[in-house]
Structures are given as C-alpha cells and as structure tokens.
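hi! just following up on the protien thing from before. the input was this:
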Amino acid sequence: MQLPKGIYFEYAPASSSSGPGLHAHLVFRDGKGNDRVIRGGLMKESDQGFKDKSTRFMKSLVGGNITVQADIPLQESRDKYDVKKGETAETRHARRLDLGGRDPEQVWKDMTAKANEIAKAGIDYNLIGEKATTRPPPNRVPHNHPRGAP
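and the predicted 3d structure came back as:
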C-alpha cells in the first residue's frame, strides 16, 4: 500500500546484542512510491573491522560511533524492509508527522541538513553513560558499577 506524501516516524525491534529495545527512523514518502530515510545507530562490527570476539562483545555493550544515513532510499539503508519477514510500513508502525501545514519536502531538506551536521560531529553512541576509557572522579561510582550509585 502506497502511503500519502509526508514524513513518517517508524520503529521496529532493535537488532542489537545489548538487549531488547526499539529502533526508530524517519521516512519521507513522496506519494509516488519513493521512500527516503534519515536514520542513525551504532556502527556495525563489520564497519569497525573487529576480529577479536571480546572486543566485539564489549563494543556491543558500551557503544561506539553513531553512523548516520540521511536522505537515502529506504531500501538501500540499514532500515530497509525485510520482505521475507513481511515487513511493511504498517508492521513498522508508521505514523505521519503533523508538520503544521509546512511543505514536507522543505521540512525533509531541513531535517536532512541537521542529520548531516550530526554525522559530521562524530558523536559517540554510549549505552552505559560513561565512556569505557574514562575513569570516574575519585568520589564517584558510575551508575552501572556493581556497588551502585553514589
């Protein structure tokens, strides 16, 4: 089913070894069957080139660099629908955003520009709140430490 022109919020179960969760992304639909995506997430192990299993496991727990994909065809992105599993906009809970009467194409251009700025910033995707290489101040225990919060 082809959805009307607009920007849609979608989500699906996250594919992560760090536990259950959801992954969200934005999709621009032109109303003619062309879907483009803005999405971000943890860089895949294959992107990072990890060969050591323990390093891969630790990175899956604490994070790494965010990979951003902006204004690319949905079916070329990491969020492409898995047709073998029957994924569709409906199974991804697609909801059209209320843009307050603004032109969806212009809003998408603005969102894409911001997403590209985020990509250039090189932001870390940190799941535990502290960088793995950063030591907490002497009087502070990280929230995820076995002793608990300070």
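The chain has a mean pLDDT of 75.
The beta strands are 6-13, 22-29, 35-42, 63-73, 95-96, 124-126.
cheers
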